């Protein structure tokens, strides 16, 4: 590795605290190293009961130690944090969150947290009772208020037979979140959506015709999931109302699964009650069959099938825009168009009453199912923000840039 490579390689500190989920951090470490990051693992003494020091050193290619007294001439308790581009603590136990919130520095990891001037991400893992304890909740609030990104834990199987919220998020999704934080560079330090609750809808709805058939669309949910993941990486509390998609849950995001347009409406309206912003990225079916056949519709020899009568689905975007339960709430819509894209988009923006409208051209080989997108974001003030062809995360970040700008421009800062 030459000098230039050493300068440009992102330096990541992976802190590992003493929870049984420590073994899952090995997968996170592998993802980070294989994607070109220079990773230094800083475990706590308790975590070594689960994964040994030799494992961390071998997987990272760097020494791993818990002590501030080793290699003293390098002043590791200061240098490691000073030189990092990102610090991620995974898993972060209740004890570690408490120490970080109160500035306790009794080992190398907690010293590193105090000296870091880069973005810091905590991926909690603990039993539900510990996560919901008022002391832990206050510590999390303190860390978030100071600019740290504390991911919401997942819901699922915990130690033993217990199940609930507190499960270590999927390491692949933690890696993706870390990648987004690093991509934002110095801007990630601001956590401009911290303290905000945002709702994102994603995926396509399916309207049942009979027990085996439905009316649907080609939406993969990728754009909505990118919006949810980037909002989480910018510090927001995110509720993702997900239609039919096979994508994994983004780390730190509360996912509500729905199937039909009516179900999506109910979930979106409920989540929007205390939301600061709602982004309607889901591909919601405009129509549904007027009648549902309880048995499979059969072919009949010599007979044409009965016509399928359609009725309109509720206009969720217009409803949310017209009746906003929280003052200052920002509503963003999406317009998937096949022709006269901008003209149709401007008409839809006026008709729906939302604040921003993301307009893109769709088709069999455009947008749907792709990892990339391009669009123009229209605003009620007449402005147009073109987003060139690129990753859907880039479009998502531009949407949140415009939303965050509106938050900052609000008279009361709300």
From TrEMBL:
UniProt cofactor note: Binds 1 FMN per subunit.
InterPro entries, sorted: CoaB-like_sf, CoaBC, DNA/pantothenate-metab_flavo_C, Flavin_trans-like, Flavoprotein
Region described as Phosphopantothenate--cysteine ligase: 198-414
GO terms classed as biological process: coenzyme A biosynthetic process; pantothenate catabolic process
Residues annotated as domain DNA/pantothenate metabolism flavoprotein C-terminal: 193-404
Known EC number: 4.1.1.36, 6.3.2.5
Pfam family for this entry, one: DFP
Similarity section: In the N-terminal section; belongs to the HFCD (homo-oligomeric flavin containing Cys decarboxylase) superfamily.
Protein name according to UniProt: Coenzyme A biosynthesis bifunctional protein CoaBC
């Amino acid at each position: 590795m030459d000098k230039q490579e050493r300068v440009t390689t992102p330096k990541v500190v992976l802190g590992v605290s003493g929870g049984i989920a420590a073994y899952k951090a090995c997968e996170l470490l592998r993802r980070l190293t294989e994607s070109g990051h220079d990773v230094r693992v800083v475990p706590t003494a308790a975590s070594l009961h689960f994964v040994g020091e030799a494992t961390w050193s071998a997987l990272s290619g760097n020494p791993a130690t818990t002590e501030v007294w080793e290699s003293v001439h390098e002043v590791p308790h200061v240098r490691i944090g000073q030189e990092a581009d990102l610090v991620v603590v995974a898993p972060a136990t209740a004890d570690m969150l408490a120490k970080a919130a109160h500035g306790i520095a009794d080992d190398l990891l907690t010293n590193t947290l105090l000296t870091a001037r880069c973005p810091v991400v905590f991926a909690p893992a603990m039993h539900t009772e510990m996560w919901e304890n008022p002391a832990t909740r206050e510590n999390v609030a303190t860390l978030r208020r100071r600019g740290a990104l504390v991911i919401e834990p997942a819901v699922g199987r915990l130690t033993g037979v217990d199940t609930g919220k507190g499960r270590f998020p999927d390491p692949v999704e933690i890696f993706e979140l870390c990648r987004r934080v690093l991509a934002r560079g110095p801007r990630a330090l601001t956590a401009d959506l911290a303290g905000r609750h945002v709702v994102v809808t994603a995926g396509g709805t399916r309207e049942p015709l009979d027990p085996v058939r439905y009316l649907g669309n080609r939406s993969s949910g990728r754009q909505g999931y990118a919006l949810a993941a980037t909002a989480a990486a910018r510090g927001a509390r995110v509720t993702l109302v997900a239609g039919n998609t096979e994508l994994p849950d983004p780390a730190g995001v509360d996912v509500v699964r729905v199937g039909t347009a009516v179900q999506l409406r109910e979930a979106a309206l409920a989540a929007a009650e205390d939301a600061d912003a709602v982004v309607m990225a889901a591909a919601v079916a405009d129509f549904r069959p007027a009648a549902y056949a309880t048995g499979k519709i059969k072919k009949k020899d010599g007979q044409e099938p009965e016509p399928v009568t359609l009725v309109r689905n509720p206009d969720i975007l217009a409803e949310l825009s017209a009746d906003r339960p929280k003052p200052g709430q920002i509503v963003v819509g999406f317009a998937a168009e096949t022709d006269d894209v901008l003209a149709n988009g401007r008409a839809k923006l006026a008709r729906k009453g939302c604040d921003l409208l993301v307009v893109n051209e769709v088709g069999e080989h455009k947008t749907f199912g792709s990892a990339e997108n391009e669009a123009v974001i229209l605003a009620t003030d007449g402005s147009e923000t073109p987003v060139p062809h690129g990753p859907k995360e880039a479009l998502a970040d531009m949407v949140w840039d415009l939303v965050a700008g509106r938050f900052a421009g609000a008279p009361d800062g709300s």
